Structures are given as structure tokens and as C-alpha cells.
Amino acid sequence: MSENAAQLGSTQLETEESTQDAKRWRDFLLSLPQPILVFGSMLAVATIYTYEWMDPDLFAAIMIVAPLPLILIAERIWTKRKDWVLTPKELAEDAFWLACGGLLWVPFYSDYYQTPISEGFKALRDLTPLNISLAPQSIIGLMLTAVLLRTISEFVYYWLHRLQHESLFWWRIHATHHHITKMGAARSDRTHPLEFLALMLGTPIVLALSGASDAVIAVAGAFGFFSAYLNHANLPLKSGLYGLYFTTTEQHHLHHSLDFGSSNTNYGCTIIIWDRVFGTYSGRKDIEAIGAGTGKSLSIIDQLMMAFVRRKKLLRY
Questions:
Q1: For 173-225, what is each residue's pLDDT tens digit?
Q2: What is the pLDDT of residue 201?
Q3: What integer best gives the mean pLDDT of the chain?
Q4: Which residue, 15, 36, 241, 248, is most buried by CB atoms nearer than 10 A?
Q5: Position 168 in a domain
Q6: Using an 8 Å Cβ cutoff, are 75 and 188 in contact?
Q7: Confidence at residue 216, expressed as pLDDT on a 0 to 100 scale
Q8: 187-218: buried (b, 16+ CB within 10 Å) or exposed (e) per residue?
């Protein structure tokens, strides 16, 4: 009997080790798509700008627009959680927020510096004692410079984002982004108009002060768009080595947790290193529910009005 028991115990141990090995390989494979897609998009834009195989501005625009429909299709095929699959009504609401971001606010900052506030950025650059110009000519130089500038701009973003979570006054304009009950790529642009003004200034200011070239801005844009969509996507991606420095889908899902403590972690939108440095990083992977406050879905009107209601009503959302 004792010999049979020992053999059974040995077999169970081997089975457990085999299962753990299979899980490690599975997690490793699931950690590859995000860096491949993000760095691949940056590489494509950098290559086009370097060798001018086609109009670089047109190709950069394609690389900014293309990720969302591709990820939306992937969410239907390779779903992380079935209860997060969006209904037609929810997709229509997301389309509204995408239109707000794409048609009203993004052009305000984008098209490089040719915007209504472009002169302000130029004046800021002229006033600074910095006399630098970041215009690398090589593909690797463009990619590294884009990551460097995103890292610097995310230092500003990190503290503004953290302030919005720690101050009820600033939470008013950020709460719209967290009052979702499902994760999805299209929800990355569910942002109150006032938040675009308050939270999105870091990147253009850093780009202005650094004298970044059009190519650097385009590569940084490809990195930012693909990262933001993937980090909100309903996909079973894992963090892996990429998640040591860059924000991953898994990490950002935790930031959207209905659990208050979990939502006050992982503030980085595309760069997670500042959370590690300042003690707000969490590697938790278990997420029961997504949302904020009471955890209920809100109408578009309620989401827009959250920035203006009284404190008591805000706390009832």
C-alpha cells in the first residue's frame, strides 16, 4: 500500500509540475502579442519616414486609425471575458465618445503643431533655455527617441492622473472614464471633454520643449494609440517582461477595477515604470468587477454632467 501511495504521490507531483510548465508557456505566449503589435507599428512608421516608400503622413494616419478595428475584431474571436462582450447599444455609445475624441479634441492637439494652440507651443519652446532638437534619422533612433519622450511625458501624466484619483474635485472630470462596467478597446476614448484639456497636455508640451521632429511625433503617436487601445481591450493578454517598463492590458484592467484600492494603482497609461518608482504599482490579476462608485452603468448625459453636479449627487453615481 505504501509503495502504491508513493507512486500515486509521485504521479500527482509530476502532473502538477507539467501543468505549471504548461501555464508558464501559455503565459509567455500571451505576453508576446502586445509588444509585437506596439513595437511593430512603431517600426513600420519609422521605416516609412526613413525610406519614404510612401507619403509618411498618410501612412502615420493609417497606423493611428488601423489598430481599433483590428482589435475590435480580435475581441470577438479571442475574448478574455464573455460578460465583457459589448452590446450594439454599448458599441454605439463608444462610437459617440470616439467621435468626440477624434473629431473635436484630438485635432486640437494633433497635426503636429499646426493647431489653434500651435503658436502657444512654439512660444513655450522659444521661452525655454533648452536649445535642443530631437530629429534622429535612423529607424532605431526614431523608436528610442519616441519611447524616451513618452516616458518623460508620462511622468507628467502620472501625477495628473494620480491627482484625479486622490482629489474629489479633479475626480469629477476623470470619473467618466471609470464609469464603465466592461472593458473594451473602444472605451479608451471614453473621456470627458474637460479631461482632454487637463490630462492630455503633458505630451504636446514635452514634444514642444524637445523640438521633436515630425517623424518622432508620428512614431510616438503609433506607440500611444496601439498601447491605449490594447490596454483597454477585452483580450487575455499577459504582462511578461514587457510589463516591467510598459503598461500592459493586464495591468490596466486592474486600474479599472470596481475595488477602490485596486483602481488607485497602475496609473501609467502606456508607461508603468513611474508606478514602480512611486509605489503605486500592483501586480494583482484577479478582477471581479469593472467600474466606479456604485458600479452601475450611466447614460451619456450623466457622464457629461458628472463634472458639474453637487458633491452629494456625485457620490451617488
A1: 899 999 999 999 999 888 888 887 666 666 667 766 777 787 888 888 889 88
A2: 64
A3: 84
A4: 248
A5: yes
A6: no
A7: 86
A8: bbbbbbeebbeebbbbbbbbbbbbebbebbbb
Which three cell numbers mark 24?
508558464
Residue 9 is assigned to a structural domain of this protein:
no
Identify whether 25 is part of a domain. Answer: no
Exposure string (b/e) for 65-84, b if CB count within 10 Å is 16 or more?
eebbeebbebbeeeebeeeb
- pLDDT tens for 115-149 read 444 455 555 555 555 666 777 889 999 999 999 98
pTM for this entry: 0.86
At 310 the pLDDT is 83
Grid cell in block for residue 229: 487601445
For the chain, the domain total comes to: 1
Does 98 fall in a domain?
Answer: yes
Q: Left (φ > 0), alpha (ψ -120 to 50) or beta: where does 230 sit?
A: alpha
Domain with 70 in it:
31-316
Q: For residue 107, which amino acid is it?
A: P
